[in-house]
Amino acid sequence: MKVETLRWFNNRLEMIDQRILPAAFEYLSYYTAHSVAEGIRSMVVRGAPAIGVAAAYGVALEALRLSNATPSLTPALSPERRGSDAAEFNKGMEEGFKVLAASRPTAVNLFWALQRMRKVWESVATQTPPRIAQRLLAEAHEILAEDIRINKAMGAHGAALLKDGARVLTHCNAGALATAGWGTALGVFRSAVEAGKKISVIADETRPFLQGARLTAWEMVQENIPVTLITDNMAGHLMAQGEVDAVVVGTDRVAANGDVANKIGTYMVAVLARRHNIPFYVACPLSTIDLSIATGKDIPIEERSEDEVKGFRDCRWAAEGVKIRNPAFDVTPAELVTGLITEKGVILQPDAQGIRKLMQV
Ligand SMILES: CSC[C@@H](O)[C@@H](O)C(=O)COP(=O)(O)O
């Protein structure tokens, strides 16, 4: 089944509502940068590359709205702001960029996509707002298509690392749902199966938002890829029993020295993998590497609502009055990473030199 996490349909952006999966499969519609930012913040769309693609469409939608290029879809545009006054257009666009940049802090793909859209905007800034809007929309389409191509290239490199029959553990959801399609870590699994390898997946449940139980398990079941769900605290036991051959996860940001930020709990899995001599791979498009950040210490870690830890949806189980922490990501030091799987190849034992060499900077 082809999962279209985001799609452009009838002059609007549609995104699968990942908060309600797998109980329900529904698309929500987006017309403005502000609503896309809210969709990112509230986790309708999540996963680093998917957030980047959504942000790119958010910019394009704002340009369309401000240039009045889609008149029927501009409910929030007051009459006096209609038309193509350049100053107003520029002001509105800056607001759009600002609200999108503030939606989630850790995934660098968000900022990468915004920077790319800004460059395109600057390159056509002297044109009329409707033309600028069309150019930005074309760029958002290109970012989406490119993401799928990159995932497939990464998948091929990663699949070569897995032996036939491998039992592979993953954490969170780095699948089609976390990207424009195919996935990063789950893309490696899809590519391995496509290459004829009989692999099976062990999905960590991934407390507190349950991306593993809800999204990874759903995706693998849809694909008929054998998958077994475990709670996060079972990983060490399975490794000790010799039931895990490799770990493949995704990432939200990789520092220049190879330190990897990913969903909370990933660091724990990496430590366990090292203890049991199990290779720990990170599927990582080059857009997720942030050369401006020297080490993982400087990667901003999002703190989310305590409600996510207190319980799930309407069910509350934590004692009233207890203090709660909810850091949504952690950092795995580069020394625990066996290899970064990128679209250009695998960087074994990643360090600053290996990363710069592959990125040719
Ligand atoms: C290909 S996605 C890689 C990461 O973004 C993924 O592993 C992850 O941590 C997602 O976190 P989320 O909070 O669900 O956005």
From TrEMBL:
EC numbers for this chain: 5.3.1.23
Lineage of source species: Bacteria, Pseudomonadati, Pseudomonadota, Betaproteobacteria, Nitrosomonadales
Site positions for Transition state stabilizer: C172
Annotated transmembrane regions: none
InterPro entries with a match to the protein in the record: IF-2B-related, IF-M1Pi, IF_2B-like_C, Initiation_fac_2B_a/b/d, M1Pi_N, NagB/RpiA_transferase-like
The protein's name in its UniProt record: Methylthioribose-1-phosphate isomerase
Reaction(s) this enzyme catalyzes, per UniProt: 5-deoxy-alpha-D-ribose 1-phosphate = 5-deoxy-D-ribulose 1-phosphate; 5-(methylsulfanyl)-alpha-D-ribose 1-phosphate = 5-(methylsulfanyl)-D-ribulose 1-phosphate
Organism: Sideroxyarcus emersonii
Pathway connected to this protein: Amino-acid biosynthesis; L-methionine biosynthesis via salvage pathway; L-methionine from S-methyl-5-thio-alpha-D-ribose 1-phosphate: step 1/6
